[in-house]
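>> received
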Amino acid sequence: MYDKRHEGTVIKMKNEISLSACSICPRECKVNREGGKKGYCKESAELYVSRAALHMWEEPCISGEEGSGAVFFSGCAMGCVFCQNHQISDGKVGKLISIERLSEIFLELQQQGANNINLVTPSHYVVQVIKALKLAKAKGLTLPIVYNTSGYEKKETIESLEGYVDIYLPDFKYMDDALATRYSKANGYSAYAKEAIAEMVRQTGPAQFDERGIMTKGVIVRHLALPGAEEDSKAIIKYLYETFGDTIYISIMNQFTPLEGVKEYPELNRTITEEEYDALVEYAIDLGVENGFIQEGETAKESFIPAFDYEGV
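>> returned
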């Protein structure tokens, strides 16, 4: 049964960004989500979650042996044609819950032994997430909070999360705006990602870990290598290392999986070759990158995509 206890409540962030004329993300669609309209993210102010469970497939310092407490939100402001989580990013899969229920989910994941609370694609729900975190912390939530995002963020929105988020896990998808426009209709992506990541690093400082090697504070920037875009990938890695050095960790991912959405993009209708990926990793090493993560084995498989079956919701 749907829980609509939060409906009709106008919520504002610290910097007065509201959902009544939404400008949370760079799209700035100005839609009245409080009034039931859906933004570019395909969501109104109603909160939809598709899965909340221990997740083992993040970076080792996030998942560890116990798992990351991943909460998958429905909808997305990016809309990449190659999205591996397209079932939920298009807003068609998700269970309606209240802010109070979301806070309970955080506490349930803590009870299950999660290493952290991992907010997956939360940007368009940042107002509701802050409310839920306040409630959960008042009831005993002590886990680090991970903000797992596409990187397509406004600096002001990231500023509103200061004091609530311990670990930022953003993507840096594109340096070239031509690629950002072609695959995500997100012209200006790199400028927004640069500014947002700088703010994330300002908030967290250098990475910190507990005695088990689990990250408790810091920034890990992910880059998913795309077929035929090796030079763009190199430009991103170079920028990140020259700008932030070893303050951040860089995660170079080879798990691109050509799903249904790339049929009209022939250049994307293949996985990354081992040679392409090795060359990218070698480039990072030659630059001097030491704080990083790479993927090994066959990660480009649909079997690595979670089942969005409302577990834990």
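>> Residues 36 and 44 are 5 Å apart (CA to CA).
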